[in-house]
Amino acid sequence: MKLVICETHNELGTKVAMEVANLIKNKPNCVLGLPTGDTPISVYKELVRMYKNGDIDFSQVTTFNLDEYLGISNSHPCSYNSFMQHNLFRHINIPKTSVHIPDGLAAFPDEECKRYESLIQTYGGIDLLILGIGHNGHIGFNEPGTLFDTPTHDIDLAFSTVQANSRFFDNIEDVPKRAITMGIKTILSARRIILMASGEKKSQIVHDAFTKEMTTNIPASVLQTHNDVLVMLDKEAARLFDK
Ligand code: PGA
User: With a 6 A CB cut-off, is 206 part of the ligand 1 pocket?
Assistant: First the structure.
């Protein structure tokens, strides 16, 4: 694991965006794995800025999002599909057909998970996967207790995740309780992984994930076994690594 500590949240976003831009320059038809949440918004802002500046071309890039809620439509304002359209896709020149996000209204979630997993393989796997980390150590929606050998699957969200995500909904009852997520096996099969975290509130969990013994109680700790992980933090999230 390599650790990069940035002075500010914005610098973190810029540096992660640079990693993405460099990959696209070296491999224009690369496959990206993308997260949602507050943390990557600064990355997407910077990628949009670079695109508008003519510094980056998404025309051959393929993306796979990490996860999507089950039970709400793609066009629901709180779906991860809407989040991605709003923060990235509608501002750049990526073809619609190159964007992949699990279908939150799939009638048969099991089938949708299998379809998604095999689609990732069809594209040759993920070149660069960007991850955030939940307060409980989840990556994607792989909540504590998820086995490390799971492929893309549907999952019950932990109550703490429902609570954390209720900030995007009118009230907590509206937050979907289930989701489809790339599994930990899917995540580990990415050729390169960047885990990013921002703010003091993530400092303990990110420190535990990379300094304590690997455990399914902290899903992100499995990244200790991956041979190309870059952990990129702002100063506040890195607070415990400084000691
Ligand atoms: P956040 O979410 O970026 O909104 O903190 C991260 C996550 O839950 O994976």
Answer: no
- Please provide residue 111's backbone torsions phi and psi, each rounded to the nearest 5 degrees: -65, -40
pLDDT 10s digits, 194-222 = 999 999 999 999 999 999 999 999 999 99
CA distances from 128 to 38, 94, 220 (A): 19, 17, 16
The reply to whether ligand 1 has any atom less than 6 angstroms from the CB of 140 is: no
pLDDT band at 243 (very low <50, low <70, confident <90, very high): low
Residue 161 has pLDDT above 80, yes or no: yes
What class is the 2-242 domain? Answer: alpha beta
Helix (H, G, I), strand (E, B) or coil at 137: coil
For residue 37, the CA-to-ligand 1 centroid distance in Å is 5
Every domain of the chain and the residues it spans:
2-242
